[in-house]
Amino acid sequence: MIYRLEFEDTQLQVRQVHSTSSFVIALVITMVVGEAAINPILAQSVGDYRSASSGIWSAIGSWQYYDGNGWTTPPDTVGYPGQKPGTANVTIQNGNSITLDVSPVNPVASINISGTSTNTTLTFNSGTALTVSGPTTIDAPTSNYRTNTMAVGAGSLNAGSITMANTGNNRRDCIVSLTTGGITIRGDLTMQGSFAENHIDITGAGTINIGGNVDNGAGAVGGGFTTPPAASVINLNGATLQNVFLYGGGRSLGILKINNAMGVTSGSAFTTVTLSIGDVAPGSSLDVGTYSETVSGNLLVNGSLNGTGGITLSGSGATIDGTGTIAAPMTASTSHTINSTADLTITGTMTINRRHTVTNNGVVSVGDLGTATGTWAQGNNSTLNYSGTAITPTLNASASDNTVNYTGDAQTVKVTTYHNLILSGNGDKTFAVTTVNGDLSLTGAAKVTTGANLTVGGNLNIGDNTSFTVPAHSLSVSGTTTVGGGTSGTLAITSVTEAKTFAGAVTINGGADFTEIAAASLVFGSNVTVSGTLTEFGAATVSVAGSFTNNGTYTASTGTHTFSGSSKTIGGSAAISIPNLAVTGTYSNSCGLTVGTSLSGAGALANEAGYTLNIGGTSTISTLAAIASGNTVNYAGANQAVHLNDYCNLTFSGSGTVTLPNGAMSISGNWTNNGVTITPGSSTVTFNGISPQTIGGTTPTAFNDLTINNSAGVQFGDPVSVSGTLTLVSGIVTTSSTNLLTTESTSTSSIIGASASSYINGPLALTLAAGVAADGTSYTFPVGDPGNFRPLALVNVRTAAGSSPVVKVTEIPTGALTGDSTITSVAPRNWHVETSGGTLASATIQLAENGLIPTNAIAQSTMQSGNYASIGGTNIGATITSVQAASSFPVYFAIGISSVMGLYSYQSGNWDDPNTWTTDPSGRTWTNARVPSMSGADRVTILNGRTISISANAKKTSSLTLNAGGVLNLHTTTGHDFGTVSGQGKLILSSNSFPGGTFTGFVAVGCCG
């Protein structure tokens, strides 16, 4: 017996060789350097097979079977290898060629192709499959130009491992070949030796799955893979870390797949048409170490690609795809396309060689695009996240909806045309970009100062913790502008040079600042919403075409603010102060708006219900609508002119003189004057509310024409004067001694329209004409108390020349108590008449009261409670007129029952006959008959057609009226005094003693025509 001890690199083989007539029994002990285990390939055991000759697998005659005693033809009970369970090791002996023509249903324990001096082959027919539960080994030929081959072809092999022994000679080959079939190696693939004669030949689109390490032998001259077709697949899919040596002797692999989440480490440079990492097992990784690998086709990374050696992408028109990370340096030596499904992170340097372009259609995060002069092109809807310091290659980033995001700290932003541009990270960005066709966004803690005129075709978004500074460059934003995300963020304008135009809505969120430190022109083409801070500078001009909402802090410039939108609002929860506001559109105010200097423009501003508009200067706007319920317009400046329009609440809180407009204006709310002098001009002011109104404040108000048309009434809280006409249409005007209503016109019609539904409740002062010396001038005071219209009229007034007297009348429903002998009782209502200024010499008094009777008389007193003395009463109906004129003021007037009667001739007769007299002014009914009192207090009227004769001397009356057609015959009596004599009747005397009295009102018929 002969033993041969062979050392081949890191393996020890011990072979037991018999004489030539004997068979060979080989015991191979494999020792792996660095491992503690020794894995023997055992000697023959019951169930082992070896080839007896060349033939087909399923032929019994092709095999010998070891039954424990020796080798024999397999009995039918065991059949060919794998036909029955329990098949152990299978050896293809020297020079035999076995063809797998069936797919054994049971696995074999191992396969050994042990040819030495003659070619030995195991060939799979197409579609056949063989499972090897243990190792597959191919021994080295011992003669030159000999080959031991496992030709899988279009079949399928599933093996625990594959080992090709060291041939020791470059003319002795160990080969595994494959066309379109598949090989699965659950363990290691080992191609031993230092020559390139151990190799795997793939000539079709076959697939090799390898679950263990790949040992290619010693360095560049070791075995490997021949150049397979581009569609062939080597899939490294182990469950533990795989170390692979894929040197192909200058040959290129087809598709190399990495599907091992525990990782694959390359120990050699390789070239592959397609490199796919994690196409089946996402999260897989490949570490190329220090080796430079070449991918001539497509690259897919759904896990990680690591190493310092790098990847060269050499396939023209190839694609890059995946959702993983590439940390290895990568060079595109040809143009490549990144697919739209990609979401890749490239932390290594990505170099694009000159004249070549990488087109990104997906989402890629890149740390460094290198210093080469190629081109990175953004495709439609793609995203580039760039964290490097700067981009050296050409950057094409204008494709529709693509996004470039600078995610680093201190970065220089490539000057090119962008679609969407994001500036993130932490630190200053050097920025001289001129065109962003889509959105420009700042996130993270980016700080940007523009270095050129900038146009943003989409939205400008300035996030929390970021700042965007615009110095002496123009800024134009076509979309919306958002400053801050709710806590911070700054947009700063630092130079007056060039306009800043924001065509879309501008939103300044809470905590954010939009600040000018130079008076640049601001153009807002849509809505402006301030929840943070908006600060304008100096005399910057501002135009707004949308609504303006302030929920934060807004500081306006002193320049003109032109609001040009249609049906827009100025509002918010915080007040707005704009010194110069020009409205050329239509706006409504729904906040506390102050226009400090000028409110102008050809448009319209409507003050909404419940809000206040403060006007501090001029107001020349074309239309100011201020009638909404509860709204207030406050003129808060000095020496202002009131805009001509209707108002709800109108307030004056400024100083100097306020001039009312020449024209008609209505007030539906309250009028408050706190400190100005009103110049009414030729204005007409109408109070026409539907709820009680007030005219008040701290300072008297002067009106020209004043109209009261509010059924709910108007109350004065301050003195009011009317220089024109007071028109009472509806509603009660409530005044007081301190809040007096005074008419300044001396016209007898300075107050018109008074009625039981519209009069003065409280004092009323009228200015009378001076120098009135004849009858015919009367002034009516439409006064009353709640529910009672009780006017007083001064009839046939006499005033002194010079100053016009001001007469104040107050109607008081209670207070009159007592009368003198001329009055038997006094009604409690009284009228107080007092004068100031000029002199009211006298006037007959006319009062209005319900239920007047013929015995009523007007009485006067210097005290409110009495004693009241009768001054007579005539024309008693709805009103009563005093017989005597009042000539001493102040004085109180009341109505009582007179002890002085008014007697009328009932029929012709004697003066001293009671049947001659009646108290009925018509003389048709005989009532209350008595003869005229000897005291002379009665008023006597002789009616038409009656002749009264006096037969006794010394008759007296307070007044005597001889109506036309009436006759008083004194006969020869004397000593009479008839008081005031009037009328156009006849007085007959029969003596030369003319009666006493005043006869200026006694005129004969036709005497004066």
Description:
With 1009 residues, the chain is an all-beta fold. Helices cover 0% and strands 47% of the residues. The protein contains no helices and 116 strands. The strands form 13 sheets. The protein has a 36-stranded parallel sheet that branches. Strands 69-72-75-78-79-82-85-88-91-94-97-98 form a 12-stranded mixed sheet, with no helix packed on it. The protein has a 10-stranded parallel sheet with strand order 49-52-55-58-61-64-67-70-73-76, with no helix packed on it. A hairpin with a 4-residue loop joins β7 (63-66) and β8 (71-72). It is rod-shaped. The protein starts with a strand and ends in a 7-residue tail after the last strand.
What's this model, at a glance?
This protein has 1009 residues and is mostly beta strands.
SSE arrangement:
Elements: E1 2-8, E2 11-17, E3 25-31, E4 38-41, E5 49-51, E6 55-56, E7 63-66, E8 71-72, E9 89-92, E10 97-100, E11 110-113, E12 120-124, E13 129-131, E14 135-138, E15 146-153, E16 156-159, E17 161-164, E18 172-178, E19 182-185, E20 189-191, E21 198-202, E22 207-210, E23 214-215, E24 224-225, E25 233-236, E26 242-244, E27 252-258, E28 264-266, E29 271-277, E30 285-287, E31 293-295, E32 299-301, E33 304-306, E34 311-313, E35 318-321, E36 325-326, E37 330-332, E38 336-338, E39 343-352, E40 357-360, E41 363-368, E42 375-378, E43 383-386, E44 394-396, E45 403-406, E46 411-412, E47 420-423, E48 426-431, E49 435-436, E50 440-442, E51 445-450, E52 454-456, E53 460-462, E54 467-470, E55 475-477, E56 481-483, E57 490-493, E58 500-502, E59 506-508, E60 513-516, E61 522-524, E62 528-530, E63 533-535, E64 542-544, E65 548-550, E66 553-555, E67 560-563, E68 568-571, E69 576-577, E70 580-583, E71 586-590, E72 593-595, E73 598-600, E74 604-607, E75 612-615, E76 618-619, E77 623-625, E78 632-635, E79 649-652, E80 657-659, ...
Parallel strand pairs: 5-9, 6-10, 9-11, 10-12, 11-14, 12-15, 13-16, 14-17, 15-18, 16-19, 17-20, 18-21, 19-22, 20-23, 21-24, 22-25, 25-27, 26-28, 27-29, 28-30, 29-31, 29-32, 30-33, 31-34, 32-35, 33-36, 34-37, 35-38, 36-39, 37-39, 38-40, 39-41, 40-42, 41-43, 42-44, 43-45, 45-47, 46-48, 47-50, 48-51, ...
Antiparallel strand pairs: 1-2, 2-3, 3-4, 5-7, 7-8, 95-100, 96-99, 97-98, 99-102, 100-101, 101-106, 102-105, 103-104, 103-106, 107-109
